What we know:
Elements: E1 16-23, H1 29-43, E2 55-63, H2 83-97, E3 108-110, H3 123-134, E4 139-140, H4 158-162, E5 169-171, H5 175-186, H6 197-203
Parallel strand pairs: 1-2
Antiparallel strand pairs: 3-5, 4-5
Amino acid sequence: xxxxxxxxxxxxxxxxxxxxxxxxxxxxxxxxxxxxxxxxxxxxxxxxxxxxxxxxxxxxxxxxxxxxxxxxxxxxxxxxxxxxxxxxxxxxxxxxxxxxxxxxxxxxxxxxxxxxxxxxxxxxxxxxxxxxxxxxxxxxxxxxxxxxxxxxxxxxxxxxxxxxxxxxxxxxxxxxxxxxxxxxxxxxxxxxxxxxxxxxxxxx
Length: 204
C-alpha cells in the first residue's frame, strides 16, 4: 500500500476514514469482528499509513440479504441485479451527511471502492490539493481510463463513455449533488434502479 501522504504534509487537512459495510453485522458477525480488528489496529498505531488520517470509524448500511445483491450476469433481466451497491452508496452518503458514529460534520467525502488500489505515493495529498483547486464542484472525479473497453469503445453510448467513475469526491453541500442523491432515492424501487449509481448520476 502506497503512503497516502508525505511526512511533511501529514494532517495538513484533517481526514477521517469510514469503513462502511453493506450488510447487517448481525448477519455477518465475522465481518464485524474483522472490521473491529482493523479499527483497533488503527487506533493502536499499527498501520504506517495511519499518520495520514485523523480518525477511523465503522458503520453499515444494514442491508438484508435480499437487498444486498450484485449479480452482473443478470443485469439485462433482473431489476435488483445492482441493488446492493446502489443502496450502499445511498446509505453511505446519508451516513456522511448525518453521522451517528461521530460528532464531526462533513461537507466532502471520497468514495474509495474495495477494489480501488492507489499506485501513487502521496495520493491523499494530491486529492486534497485537487479539491481545493477545483472548487466549487458537485462531484470531482474522472472517466474510466482502463483497457477493457478498447475493442468496442466506439459502440458504447455517450452517457456510459463519459460518466464519472464512482470513485470520486462528492460535495454533499452542493445543490446539484443533493438533487442527484434525492433522485437516486426516489428511483430505488423503479426501473432506473437497474443502472449503477455512478452511471445513473452521469445520465442525470
